[in-house]
Every structure is written in structure tokens, then in C-alpha cells.
Amino acid sequence: MTSFNYITSFFLFLTIFSLSDAGFIGINYGRIANDLPSPTSVVQLLKTQGINKVKLYDTEPTVLKALSGSNISVVVALPNELLSNASQSQSFANDWVKNNILAYYPSTQIETIAVGNEVFVDPNNTTMFLVPAMKNIHSALVNSSLDSNIKISSPIALSCLASSYPSSSGSFKPELIQPVITPMLDFLRSSGSYLMVNAYPYFAYEGNADVISLDYALFRENSGQVDSGNGLKYVSLMDAQLDAVYAAMSALKYDDLKMVVSETGWPSKGDESETGAGQDNAAAYNGNLVRRVLTGGGTPLRPKQDLEVYLFALFNENQKTGPTSEKNYGLFYPSEQKVYNIPLTVAGLAGWNGGKTQSTPTPSPSPSPVNNSGGDGGGTVSTSGVGHTWCVANGKLGVKKLQTGLDYACGEGGADCSQIQPGATCYDPNTIEAHATFAFNSYYQKKNRAMGTCDFGGAAFVVTQAPKFGKCQLSPGN
Ligand SMILES: *[C@@H]1O[C@H](CO)[C@@H](O)[C@H](O)[C@H]1NC(C)=O
Ligand SMILES: *[C@@H]1O[C@H](CO)[C@@H](O)[C@H](O)[C@H]1NC(C)=O
Ligand SMILES: *[C@@H]1O[C@H](CO)[C@@H](O)[C@H](O)[C@H]1NC(C)=O
Ligand SMILES: *[C@@H]1O[C@H](CO)[C@@H](O)[C@H](O)[C@H]1NC(C)=O
Ligand SMILES: *[C@@H]1O[C@H](CO)[C@@H](O)[C@H](O)[C@H]1NC(C)=O
Ligand SMILES: *[C@@H]1O[C@H](CO)[C@@H](O)[C@H](O)[C@H]1NC(C)=O
User: Fold this and answer.
1) For 225, 258, 367, 451, which has the most beta carbons within 10 A of its beta carbon?
2) Atom of ligand 1 nearest to the CA of 73
3) Does 399 share its domain with 324?
4) Are 64 and 127 in the same domain?
5) Which pLDDT score is estimated for 18?
6) Which of 351, 374, 400 is the last residue in one of the domains?
7) Quick check: CB of 371 below 6 Å from ligand 6?
8) Active-site annotation holds for 308
9) Residue 206 annotated as catalytic
10) Cβ of residue 71 lying under 6 Å from some atom of ligand 1
11) What's the pLDDT tens digit per position in 40-76?
12) pLDDT in the model for residue 357
């Protein structure tokens, strides 16, 4: 989808559809930290940010009380440590529901109980307890006639897939299917619930940055990838990840189950080895994701199923273990200051610039502007459309390299170079750098901005604002 279509459909969406037709954005309120604000302050923060869905990792009484009467829907969790007991004893499950759910519901709007979290990768191997625990908690809800008000699910990690690329080949690990996947999907279906998936394009990017484009991972404009299995085109890694899960379910004949993204996020800081971690990328990922979700629509495989997503996470959590990134997924510091500024509501989308900060490495850190032969605004940039990119010549590399690239682009490359011929609109300024920029950009746009098509032996790089020189302004379609 081009940016122009994107913008058009966005405004169409705003005018034609009611907002409740779109997906939702919730947030994970993790508390592995010793410096977080009080739960009451946190509830105020959520309200001022327009967030009306929150996901917790337990049933902490002070948090559930603070959420009472807030009109914020809550996903609570039964921690992995209790799975064994909940699976072996109906009375344990009954007591747990009584003390942790009934004591707060309905003034605290508990809508789902996550029974366990990423159970298949729990080092204590609690997998065999999962489905029996879900069933016992469900029976306890049935006993209180709350089973139609409160759903039961369990977030799974993408590592439960044996295959996820291409997306259409998605399948669950064979050793999990019979023991737990099939019984769980049966339970979700029969109880009218849905699958919860924790999906992190960041991990896929971090481990494969040499082959995955950052723009593809960050929902920025890119040429996309066609799935060789089903011919569907993907313009974001997250869509491909979610469709891999849908494909895995489909292979087991569970095409009817809904899916909610129970966690996704991008760290604003990481160790040196953690490729891609950083504030600009985190802002781009989360901001573009929010726009993606709130403007409606689903994945290529399930286009009508709006995305429902809980961001990870509300705060940076200073007591998390592991690499630096683990402590830096928050949208907010414990002081309640924003780590970066992104929209979280439909109203906030209008001011969002698409996270266009250039974070792909360029051959020259401060590229020399395209020279102008005395006209207006030589080398200046103009406002650009959402997510557009242009290809620009790097003047620092010298005439010879630019000329080689120019000759290739206008020759074999098939760029449209008619505008830089004598007398045409973009002939002036008559410099090699300006002409090369025109030709390189024409080639790059013609190749749909595919990876590697703005290089010319290192003589070119991608920018996110339209280059303008003289009367000649390069459109994204040049
Ligand atoms: C509660 O939230 C729902 C949707 O989240 C909204 O439609 C409704 O107006 C809210 N009610 C109050 C009293 O704020
Ligand atoms: C879980 O069960 C074990 C064994 O029956 C028991 O010792 C333990 O106290 C139980 N845990 C909880 C939280 O009830
Ligand atoms: C594993 O089980 C032990 C003993 O019950 C407990 O102390 C530990 O926290 C558990 N580890 C995890 C990751 O749940
Ligand atoms: C976990 O437990 C299940 C069933 O008890 C067993 O089949 C599986 O091999 C165990 N997995 C690991 C990683 O220990
Ligand atoms: C239903 O709940 C009541 C009250 O908590 C309890 O006494 C009873 O054992 C429960 N029944 C079942 C089948 O769990
Ligand atoms: C661009 O203009 C500056 C002075 O305005 C000059 O120093 C530089 O050499 C020019 N670069 C090219 C590639 O023409």
C-alpha cells in the first residue's frame, strides 16, 4: 500500500466508520521495579493518556482496588507458580477466583484472566498443568455465573512455532501440539475465548538485522515482501508474525479463533550488541503500531479482523534481569515522564509524523545538500508525506562515482532522465550531484524502494524528506 493510499484510507476511515469499528490499544502494567508511582497515580496516568485497557501480571490487591470504578477494563493473571495447584485442585481454583476475582468484580472491570504467561518456555516446565488449570478456573467462573462476562486465555510466546517464515508456513512445534496446543485451542473455542500471543518483531530484527529491513520492522514505508506460499504481500513484520500464528492454527483446523496481541514492544535502550534498540526506533515502532491499530483493519490473512494489542509496557522496570533492553521497554519513566512522544489515541494520530527519524546508517552522517544555482531553497527540504522516502546522491564521493551511478541509472537502470536534459525542468541546477540525485531517486522509486536500490556503489542514501533544488522538486513517484 502506498502512503497516499494510506493517508486517503485513514481519512476515509475517520469520516465513514465509527471508531468502535477499529481495534484497540491497551497497555501492560508490569511492576518489576522498586521506583514506580502508587497504583492510584498510575490509574490517573492511564486516564489522562486515554488508555482504557490494562493488562496485569497478577492480582495485586492495591492495583485492583485502584482500578475500581475507573472504567478501565482489566486483564488479570494467575501466575505460573500457581498453575500446578490450580490444575490439581478445583477447590484451590474456586478459592483463587473468590479471593482474586469476585472480591473486586464488577467495580473493577475484570474482562479476562490470563492463566499463566508464556508457559511453554517456563523453566519450571509447567506446560502439563496449563489446560487443566484453565478448565478449573473456568469451572469456578461457571459456578459464579461469570463465565460469559470473564474470559480465560493464556499468552503464548512466538517460540511455540516450529516455522514462521514464510508466514504461510506457520506451524506449531510438533511436540506441543498433541499435549497442549490442541487441548488449549479446543478449550478457547468451547468457552468462547481467544488466543493471546506475545509478538516481538524486535527480537526477529535484532537477530537478523542483516536480512530484515528496519523499515519493515518499524511499520515505515517499505517495498514489502510477498509470501511465496500464498502470494500475499506483507509490509510489516508484525503482520507476518501474526499470520504465521493464524496459519499454524489453520493447519490444525482452528480458523474461527480470534487472536489478541497480549504483548508487543520495542526497547528504547539496549546494550551495544542489541541491534535496533533505541529511542527513535522504539518511538517509530510503537507510534506506527498505534496508528496501524487505531485506523482499523487486520492482517493480510484476516483483513477484517481488527488488531487488538496490549503494548509492552507502561513503565521502564528497573528490577528486570537480563540485557539492558529488558529494563527499557516502558513508554514512561517511573517519574511519569514520557520516554518518547507517541500518540495513544485516535485524537493523537493527527500530529504523528510516522517516526521518520532516519535511523538507517547512511554513508555520510551529515550529507552535503544538493547545490542550487542561485534559485530558491537550494538543498532545503520540504514537508513530506507520511513515511515517504527518497534517494539522494552523496556529493562527498566525488564526480567519478556519481557519474558512474548516473550513467547506470539513466541507461540500463531505466530511470526516467528526461527531466534532467537541457531545457527540461530539472536541468538546473546543472550539477552532477543534482542530476545524479534526480536519476537515483527515479530509479529507486521505480524499484518500489526495494532494499539495495538506493546504493549505487555507496554514492546514494535514503532520506525521509523530499529533496528540492531550483524549480525541481522530487516527488516520491519521480
Ligand atoms: C466507559 O468506557 C467505555 C468504553 O471504553 C465508554 O464507551 C464509556 O463512555 C465509558 N463510561 C464512562 C462513564 O466514562
Ligand atoms: C500448592 O500445593 C502445594 C502442595 O499441595 C502446597 O504445599 C502449597 O501450599 C500450595 N500453594 C498454595 C499457594 O496454595
Ligand atoms: C520455579 O520453581 C521454584 C520452586 O517452586 C520457584 O522458587 C521458582 O521461582 C520457579 N521459577 C520460575 C521461573 O517460575
Ligand atoms: C516438560 O514436561 C513434559 C510433560 O511432563 C515433558 O514431556 C517435556 O519433555 C518437558 N519439557 C522440558 C523442556 O523439560
Ligand atoms: C461453587 O461455589 C460454592 C461457593 O463458593 C462452593 O461451595 C461449591 O463447592 C462450588 N461448586 C463447585 C462445583 O465448584
Ligand atoms: C556546493 O556549494 C558549495 C558552496 O556553496 C561548494 O563549496 C561545494 O563545492 C558545492 N558542491 C558541489 C558538489 O557542487
Assistant:
1) 225
2) 5
3) no
4) yes
5) 42
6) 351
7) yes
8) no
9) no
10) yes
11) 999 999 999 999 999 999 999 999 999 999 999 999 9
12) 52
